[in-house]
Amino acid sequence: MKTAIQSVTARRVWDSRGRPTVEVEIALAGGARGRAIAPAGASTGSGEAVDLRDGGAPQGGMDVTKALAGIAAEIAPALAGLDATDQSAVDRALIDLDGTPNKGRLGGNALIASSMAAAHAAAAGVGLPLWRYLAGGAPGRVPLPEIQIFGGGAHAGRRIDIQDLMVIAVGAGDFATALDWTAEVYRAAGKLLAEQGKLAGVADEGGFWPVFSSNEEALSTLVRAIEQAGFRPGEHVAVSLDIAASEFGENGRYRLDRENRTLSRDEMIDMLLGWTKRYPIVSIEDPLAEDDEAGLVAFTKAAGEKIQIIGDDFLVTNAARVRHAASVGACNAVLIKPNQAGTLTETRAALEAAREAGYSAVVSARSGETEDVTIVHLAVGWGVPQLRVGSFTRSERMAKWNEGLRLSEALPTGGALPPRSSLPWGRP
Ligand code: PGA
């Protein structure tokens, strides 16, 4: 069989934070090869697959030699001979071999790199680009980009409490235009900061380092940047926030260090609802902490008709959690991060659960990334309507946007974005 897995090899490569990470390369009997690199989160949900890191002093404890050893000693022999085009069999073997609920024995990093490398090898083996292989006959479509302008939270030394201030070019008709508009906003934001003497480099995902005196100042500056770039806020370009509230909230209390105050759940919800009234916000991710289901339900009830409410730490790309959230009315969209799940099969299951629940979905990169562009193919091939990969600078981010441009040329639908009516803020 040409698509039988012949060899699995791992190498230690480096991510965008200069930390070691895992690359897996799979060769098939017919000669095709596939390769993928594990990304890494910094603000991680407690329910996600955990990476296997060496600990100790070298590389700040972040080295991956144990994960590489596990691939050589266990994963390679277990996958040998399996048909790479049978992704669920490959992933089942990985899950069974690891044997832990959080994939901590062999490492989520080892598993996701192996799982994605198998998909790449399979696509090469049948002579298709990855997106088309994953689409299985569906036309595929480029996703609407969600792009970071200011970074914060765990990605910027907690300089502001909220983690990401992003834009979505809701008025753009195609992928390339969405990028053009975002580039103008990013440039305008940089100019604004420079004029105010507040230009201080970039955060982990390449968004500007947030030298603001309050969370809301970041928001108002973003809206000004949209205007100064020549766009109508909300109509052409809207605001999307990742609060990442699990980073500063626990037991229904929310500590805003930047503003030196602690909010109750209700006060936190009121603050966010106030923002949604004063600013053109179309999407909020993790508005409340992962342990605050009651808060998420209350916020979804209050704002979910008009605004996209994404679960990241709360849902951790887990189908069972998505089904539970839908049953209680928490969130209306799910963030899809393959390394939270640990395998592509489980990632796909979370997406299917979202579809069954009527939830929207956003494929997402991590704050620690590389040149690997697998997630763009997942978004296109699986027909996921939105994609977020960080800012509009730095090549680990731009590699993904640029791949989206290439796929726009290859797709039967060209660069056409999902229709507004199919997105949470465009529903009648
Ligand atoms: P993370 O950040 O990779 O550190 O979790 C990505 C995000 O903002 O969701």
Task: Describe the protein's architecture and organization.
The protein has 428 residues and is of the alpha/beta class. It has two domains: 5-127, Enolase-like, N-terminal domain (Enolase-like, domain 1); 144-426, Alpha-Beta Barrel (TIM Barrel). It has 13 helices and 14 strands. It has helices at 65-79, 87-98, 108-125, 130-135, 175-195, 215-228, 265-278, 293-303, 319-328, 338-341, 344-357, 374-381, 395-410; strands at residues 5-14, 20-28, 33-37, 144-151, 164-168, 238-242, 249-250, 253-256, 261-264, 281-285, 308-311, 333-336, 360-364, 386-391. The chain has an eight-stranded mixed barrel, surrounded by six helices. Strand 2 (20-28) and strand 3 form a beta hairpin. The chain is globular and about 60 Å long. The relative contact order is 0.15. The model has no long low-confidence stretch (mean pLDDT 97). The chain binds 2-phosphoglycolic acid (PGA). 2-phosphoglycolic acid binds at residues 41-44, 163-164, 242, 312, 364, 366-367.
Distance between the termini: 51 Å
Give the biggest beta sheet. 8 strands, mixed, barrel
Number of discrete helical segments: 13
Cofactors and ligands: 2-phosphoglycolic acid
Helical content class: 25-40%
Sketch the topology as an H/E string, one letter per element. EEEHHHHEEHHEEEEHEHEHEHHEHEH
The chain-level structural class is alpha/beta
* Low-pLDDT residue spans: none
